[in-house]
Each structure stands twice: as C-alpha cells, then as structure tokens.
Amino acid sequence: MRPKFALLAVIAVALIFSSILPLSACAQDQPQRVEVVAKRFQFIPADITLKKGVPVVLVLTSQDVGHGLKFKELSIDIKAKKGKSAEVTFTPQQTGTFIGQCSVFCGSGHGSMKLTLHVTE
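and the corresponding structure tokens:
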C-alpha cells in the first residue's frame, strides 16, 4: 500500500508543478511597464533605471499640452497629445546613462524638460 501512496504523491506534486511553472514563465515573458507623466516642463518620474536585454513598454501620458520623449542614442521618439497616452516597446541593448528630452515644443520651459534613463547589466 505504501508504494502506491508514494507514487500518487509524486504524481500529485508533478501535476502541481506543471500547472504552476507555465504561469510563472508567462509572467516573466511580459515586458516591464514604465509609466511616465509629462506636464508643465517636467517628466514624472525624472529618473528611470532599466536592465539591459529586458523588454520594456514605455508609456508617456501628457497632462496639459502635447509632449514627446526622445532618446536619440536609443532611437526612441514617442509623442502624446494633450490628455492622451502613447506607448513604445523596446529592449535596451546597451548599458549607460541616456538623457531624453521633450520632442514636441511645449512652451517656454521646453528646453529644460529632461528624463534620465539608466540601463544597467
């Protein structure tokens, strides 16, 4: 009787793990979502850290007028209209610190509107 119980226990554990592992694998395949708010000459947050090789969905939401966010070195340029959001999916391929700037003229403080992106190993 004991060998049958041991066999049933092994099968039960195998079934539990086989049902859990695909879910965790799917969760890891989802890109990291980073939300940035643009308003009155600032990005919130103004500083973001990402990992090299990890896919990211960057969501830009404009609260007051049209804004953009451009990282020239990463070939990223996203634009959001007033009160709307826009998103771009990318995977950072190089480490370093990159400065993004508003790419849609938004008024007198436009030139000071920056976001720092750190990409680490």
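(Above: one complete record from the training split.) The chain has two domains: 1-29, 31-120.
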